[in-house]
Amino acid sequence: MRISVIGAGYVGLITGLCLAEKGHQIICVDLDQEKVEKINHKIPPIYEKGLEKLLRKNINRNLKAITDIHKAVLESDVSFIAVGTPFNGGQIDLRYIKEASQQIGMALKEKNSYHLIVVKSTVVPGTTDEIVLPILEMVSGKKAGVDFGVGMNPEFLREGKAVDDFMFPDRIVLGGIDKKSIEILCQLYNVFPDVDKVKTNNKTAEMIKYTSNSLLATMISFSNEIANLCTAIGDIDVVDVMNCVHMDKRLSPILPDGQRIVPPFTTYLEAGCGFGGSCLPKDVKALIAHGKKLGAPTQVLNAVMRVNEHQPKQIVQLLKRHFPLLAGIRIAILGLAFKPGTDDMRESPSITVINDLLFGKAKIKAYDPAAKQQAQALFDNEDIVFCDDLLQTIENVEAIVILTCWDEFAKIPDFLTHLNMPPVVIDGRRMLDKCQIKRYEGIGL
After folding, report:
1. Which H/E stretch holds residue 185?
2. What percentage of the chain carries pLDDT values higher than 70?
3. Is the fold of 2-200 the same as that of 215-442?
4. Domain at 215-442: CATH architecture
5. Which of 328, 315, 336, 335 is nearest to 397 (CA)?
């Protein structure tokens, strides 16, 4: 099938490359000429596992990148809208959604054949039907459901594992305004024959995405609230508590042969320094704002965000157990991206922690395997030294703070065993064995 993807950012590029890998003919469109040139020269514009391999395989075969939306729409049968929908504090910003809809509408005006437009961006329920569809009709002068179809196909991609998530999905949600729109989406996704496909209307498809992310965020904040309570009570380790909770057969079923299945989602029921990234914070805030607008307050989700905003502060409190005055204290920050496997620092807990430490006049060395460049652009401060490797970062420091659970950081206990006076380790992700470290502090301990 001939498909155009409007927006070659994180979601758009992953969508285009994976569909190209499945045999579709893809045109990725982005207004950023530099990004388009990188893609066409097989250079990944973002850090994501498996992305470069897909680029090398599919560029000039099943995929190309251009800057001309009009041309892309005319040369395709289906157009995905995969542009950004940032949260501006009161609601999601639909500027790019509207601009893409207008550009597609102008192309539809010149097109004689039927075309399907599918929103891939995360938008609040009602956006596809009440904003995108009317713009398409008004600009094109054509009728939705007759001359073109409109659908909604949310993404469920985890940064760092996005390629695998797309290629091996647990479900595919197919929203549409009518039977024909959904049927075309079904044909497009027939390349995933053994996956559950949920056929529904656009509003429901939009709500499924927000509900999914809100549940994950709620699980994280619930775990962090229990962790903070464990700390307040004393003589309790939240890791022991949650490990036992996970053994509930409803969370980790036991097969007839006695083998226990531990679903990956239980990682969201582990305590830490909070969630970040481009999805969970933005989506929960957007749903809260949308509920408020509709007169349906979301009390649970409000609490989820309050807990998360407070959680990075726990790191500084743990440090102050050992250093009541942070001025001049040499601290190694390990992990800058909001999670391993990505260079994304949006809403990362590390930002709050570093700003608090800088306010306290601490001396900081920082290291992340992927996010150094992003961090340097974000923190232009002479009190931060950005290092290139783990050993350089933890050398001659008084405290080590782990904020992202990169596998590499599991080596830390081995590096500290020979020291008579090792630095205190503040484990913001509870990834290390507390028994292997002489001076250890962790969330929920």
Report:
1. helix 179-188
2. 100
3. yes
4. 3-Layer(aba) Sandwich (3.40)
5. 328
Map tokens 């949006």 to a residue. Answer: 346
The structure tokens listed for 177 are 């305004």
Q: Could you tell me the CA-to-CA distances from 14 to 65, 221, 303, 437 in Å, in that order?
A: 13, 29, 33, 40
332 strand-pairing partners: 365, 400
Whether pTM exceeds 0.90 = yes
DSSP summary character for residue 392? H
Q: Hey, which residues does 77 pair with through a beta bridge?
A: none
Question: Rounded to an integer, what distance in angstroms lies between the CA atom of residue 316 and that of residue 360?
Answer: 10
CATH topology for the 2-200 domain:
Rossmann fold (3.40.50)
CA–CA separation, 202 vs 97, rounded Å?
Answer: 15
Domain ranges of the chain: 2-200, 215-442
Best CA proximity match to 366, nearest among 392, 341, 345: 392
pLDDT at 442 > cutoff 80: yes
The whole-number average pLDDT for the span 336-355 is 94
Residue 277 burial (C-beta neighbours within 10 Å; 0-12, 13-18, 19+): buried
Rounded Cα–Cα distance for residues 215 and 237 (Å) = 24
What per-residue string of b and e applies to 135-155 under the rule 16 or more CB within 10 Å gives b?
Answer: bbbebbebebeebbbbbbbbb
Which positions are catalytic? 279
What is the spatial distance between Cα 147 and Cα 187, in angstroms, rounded to a whole number? 19
Tell me the average pLDDT of the chain. Answer: 94
d(CA 338, CA 346): 7
pLDDT at residue 381 is higher than 80 = no
Do the bridges between strand 78-81 and strand 2-6 make them parallel or antiparallel, or are there none, so unpaired?
A: parallel
pLDDT tens-digit readout, 249-280:
999 999 999 999 998 888 888 999 999 988 89
Separation between Cα atoms, residue 145 and residue 135, nearest integer Å = 14
Q: Are 295 and 245 in contact (CB under 8 A)?
A: no
